[in-house]
């Protein structure tokens, strides 16, 4: 996998992926940015959320669960001093579907956390990563 980061101006950078997608990242006005895009550390969080949500949805579909939606709300904590690594990340899954079995949802989240989600497993080297979930019938 390859990626390219190009400085645009001030503290704005354009990230380009090998698959041909681009995202603008920027800093807050107080830090010289214009708030035109997410911060790089925010990108890490949303990438992690997407990685684990992908796993959970895929695992539940393979288990023939009738999933219709999956939202991951993420809360994080960072170190006070540089490098300000993530020290805690909590992922709250809100899974919607018909007759979803809680044990299947829990299993899917566990498999993602322990085996499949490269992003959360990598971040787990510096942060305590926790999970919980709720099921909405719908």
Overall description:
The chain is α+β, with helices and mostly antiparallel strands and 138 residues long. It has two domains: 1-38, Single Sheet (N-terminal domain of TfIIb), CATH 2.20.25; 40-137, GMP Synthetase, Chain A, domain 3. It contains three helices and six strands. A three-stranded antiparallel β-sheet has the order 1-2-3, with no helix packed on it. A hairpin with a 2-residue loop joins strand 1 and strand 2. Helix 1 (40-62) packs across helix 2. The model has no long low-confidence stretch (mean pLDDT 97).
Assembly annotation: single chain
Question: So, CATH architecture of the largest domain?
Answer: 2-Layer Sandwich
Write down the overall geometry. Answer: elongated
Mean pLDDT: 97
The DSSP helix count reads 3
Under CATH, the topology of the largest domain can be stated as GMP Synthetase, Chain A, domain 3
**SS-derived structural category:** alpha+beta
Low-confidence regions: none
Q: What share of the residues lie within helices?
A: 25-40%
Give the count of structural domains. 2
The first-level CATH class name of the largest domain:
Alpha Beta
Radius of gyration: 17 Å
Please, what is the CATH homologous superfamily of the largest domain? K homology (KH) domain
What's the main sheet like? 3 strands, antiparallel
The proportion of residues in beta strands is: 35-45%
Q: Reading side by side through the largest sheet, how are the strands ordered?
A: 1-2-3
CA-CA gap between termini: 38 Å
Record field, number of beta strands: 6
Protein name: OsmC family protein
Pfam families: OsmC
